[in-house]
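input
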Amino acid sequence: HLTICSYTRDVIEEPVQPDPVAGRTLTARLFGASQLHVVTETGQEIRVLGPGKPMLLVARLLHAPQGMLRDTLATFMWPGIDEVRARSSLRQALFQLREILGPNAIRGDRRHVALVGPLASDVRDFLAALDAGNDASAVALYRGPFLADLAIADASEAELWLTLERARYHQLYL
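output
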């Protein structure tokens, strides 16, 4: 990796970080009890993230395959606080997710952020099963409402998004 420092235009050689999940499958379960887990080479599932804001961040980025503007994502995740603190909270959350998902799983610049790592999702599998006409597989994947264990009650964009997504997936399930 090469990084060009904008203030000096120096080129700095950065070591490529080892990927902590190399050889493992990362899966986000977003229906029912939300969690992110890895499946090891031996098939063992290890939970690496449970419900909460970091899981909401993973879900939101999974639903935006092209990524999102940082300002939009920061406001979505931390409404009601000033922009500087919201962006700082987003940086910290993205750092924590990189620690869990691996250094190459999240790409971004000063304006944009995207989840690019190989991450399976029950929602993606559910939608693919419906598209393929495999209703039995879709029904098996739907283990309850979208992010069922996440409660947001601040009348924010995140609460509205969560409500709409839950209704959409429930309707598809029916």
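quick obs: The CA atoms of residues 152 and 159 lie 5 Å apart.
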